[in-house]
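Example 3.
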Amino acid sequence: MLGTQQGGAADRMAKEPELVARNRRLAETGDCVAQFNLGNMYRIGYQIKADRDLAIKWLSLAARQGHEEATELLLDMGVDLSSPASVDPPASEIVADSLFAEEPREDPQTLLAAAEAGNADAQVALGNAYRFGTDFAVDLEEAVRWYRSAASQGAALGQYALATMFDRGLGVEQDAAEARSWYTKAALQGISGAQFNLGNMIFQGRGGESNPEVAADWFRKAAEQGDAAALFALGALYERGAGLPQDELQAVKHYRDAAERGDADAQFNLANMLREGRGTAADPGEAASLYRRAGEQGLAAAQFNYGLMLATGQTIARNDTAAARWLLRAAEQGDRRAQYFLGTFHEQGRGVSRDSGAAFEWYLRAATQGDPRAQYDLATLYAAGKGIPADLVEAHVWLSLAAGSTDAEVVEAASQALKSLGGELDGAALVEAERRFRARNSGSAS
Amino acid sequence: MSGRSTSFEIHVLRDKRWVLTEIVGDEANAVQFADSLLNKSNYEAVRVVRDFKRIDGLHSETVVHEKVAVAQKAEITLVPVSDAPICTELAHVYDLPSRLVIGRLFRHYLDEALITPTELLHNAREMKRLADKGRLLMSAVDSVASLQAPGGGEDSKARRDFMHKTWDQLYARARNATPEKPSKSSTFKDLLVAAGKTAEEEDFQCLLLMSSQLLELRGWLAKLDKVLAWAAEEEAAPHFALIDGLIADLTMPGAAVQDLLGYQPNLGNALCHLCDLAEGKAEPAKFASESFAAVNRLFAEGRLPQAKETLLNRVARELRSANPLSRNEPEKEYEMFVQVSSRLVNFQGVVGGETLAEALLQRSAKLQSMGGVSGFVYAIDEVLGILGDGCRCTLFLLDLAKIPREDPGFAAVLAQSFGDLARNRQHIDRWAPLRLPPRERMAAVTGCNRAICNSSTLSDGLKAELAKRTDTILATYLEEDKVIEKIDNPDDPLAFRALRLVKFCSSGVLIAGKSLDMARQRVLDHLRQPQFEAKFLASIPDQAQAERHLREFHRLLVGSGFGS
């Protein structure tokens, strides 16, 4: 029974030193200080045999309740709290006939024979085999040849595949008008992917005129077949009021439908609306969960937002380590806001070890992309010689860039800093700073 | 004898492509070399092509020799199993838990022979064929005996002896019951009549006759169609457990499930679809079998408890396996885990109970690449984070708590998670999703409260704490959202207000605690006002209708416990 003392544990406690037994008793009722104490005893082997796994167990329980020292100890022990790997996961069960272990594939010779005999389905499958290099070496022109053959027989999937080749210029010269024409043929036969792509082309005016209302119609046709991308597109049109009357309730409804089908963009947009309470009651908890789902699928903006939510701890439990991990994922994809925050994390030792060099690197990447806060903080590192040898000229350059930004707060701070820094530079240095500033400014402008 | 204008190319078939490996000048040497390549290497085939250079410079090619490798049949092996329920008497072997183990252990053999465990156990010829299949049966007995011996208090030799003896009895029973002349008629009605004429137990004999018919069919779906045809007969109704058992067996093989379900983009989708089917709520997917709708209907009618258990058993095993939920799009692995988690845990509890709750947890631990008690902490947190609302989190934890565990650390982790829910979630928004309609939100909290109070695994302290929290949450919600005021709208006639209130009290969406007391108090306030009934009747112009409503009101009052 949960919450009551187990017989076995009671026996063991009787043999344990009083200090260990007392802490264990409290730890098992959820007392985080006792959990920390017990974990630490296991870690160093104090009055009890050292046991790394048990140490991690109890320290993790304490850390989970926000015990900062437990978190630090776990980090010292090399445990990545956001992705722990100290004990092997449970053994996997062998499922001899697992579902969908492998995609069933037609024998290539049979496929070839059927395609040559004029079977349109086989021609599409053969085109796919040439396109994706399954059973045959990749040959995009050959793929186009088979798709065209199927398409000319009226096979919807052949028309759709051929349209995609024209749309992307694969194995054939890119031709938006031709793509639009084949998408239309496939869309009229009910292929949801073609309906969605056609909607996109019509919305963007590729291969013909732009017409948001007609685009919305095609998106709707695809959405009715459960196409997640089309549901997302409809949500976006409702949110923006393009091609459809602006309607945030409808936007939320369509985003939710798409999000539940796993569409990362829809998850992100829905999360934004839930966070801001637009078109729905505000639900920051669900927003965080949706950011996480979109972030796990690789959407940098979602990774950044989720990281920030973890860092602030306003709607979900604060977890600097996890925040740093998410910011890193977004930063590595080039998100400048994530790069800036990751720089601050490294500078402050939040969720990662304090490392001015790493802070410098991330500030530099964000600053180069024009982030004013990063430009300012980068300048302060140059001025203080933290993470990089001191270089007042470079500091001046980055402060000048920050002072020219549109962020009022940064502009004011940078202007103040420039004044005091100006006094420390001689004329030649100021000229050099001015030269570098112009070069960088023109570089960023171009 | 060939001139210089003739050469012989040796081609080998590799990955379904002919590849030139050697050119020799002599045909006999070429053939000999090609044959030796086939014997020594893993090529699928070899061929010798004579290339003749004509006088006009063109080449003419002729295949003069071609040989295909004899496919080496892989030896059929057992599939390892980690658990096997103990059978203490013959009848247990025919039960579903035993058949599930047979279905897993002999999966390769059963797939090759295209037979189900029931067909195997009800056909002497098939039993003999298995027994004659090398050491397969012996190995299976060894494997199961070594699993069962520690739990059953026997040594594995005694267990092995028992199982061999049982097998002999099973065989003898099937052999003795086999009719000399098999029935030609294949309706369920005729099979029943035939079964009734023997000394054997009717259900066994019936299954034996059905198995005999099913063994004639060479496809899982063909067998399923046959069983569905029996199921449609009136005479099958009193014997539906037999039909259920056969369908359960036919939903064991992966290939059968896959054909039944139709196209599924990945394993995660397939598992969600299996849950839908097991609950009779599935829509046929692209390329789904024609039998799908009929099977789904039987599940919806609740007539296939064994088949349901079989499908959910597969879901659990697939979750415990290392097979990715999204093989083709690895970046969607977490997303599929979210979708599977959300499908499995609803406001009634975990589909499939503690078995699937534990399987979900194991999959979560694998996603984190961590095991042990520490992994348990993170795995639980991951699932709770996905579920989000306190109601489903509690129901998931309640099912997890039913699993006995040796290490008290696990219980400590669960106790802490329950404690966190009770202490840190102080508003209904943290317990029931905002997107749900008010009635569903209240029902979710009430259902959760009921599950807490009925739990036999929670300590009294935790139970009281959680029950109090959910009760308070709901009462606060009624106050904050003025739910009772909205029902008891003063602009409406008193009769309607009173009726709505008493219906609200008996709707089951309120907790027998603060929230129900609040609603009941409002009803009592009405009842206690002077001349309530007169006012009630006066509030509706149509006297006959007013009296009807009053009678209904009194009936509901009694039903809601106001009369006692």
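Residues 179 and 363 of chain B are 49 Å apart (CA to CA). Chain B touches chain A through 74 residues (CB under 8 Å).
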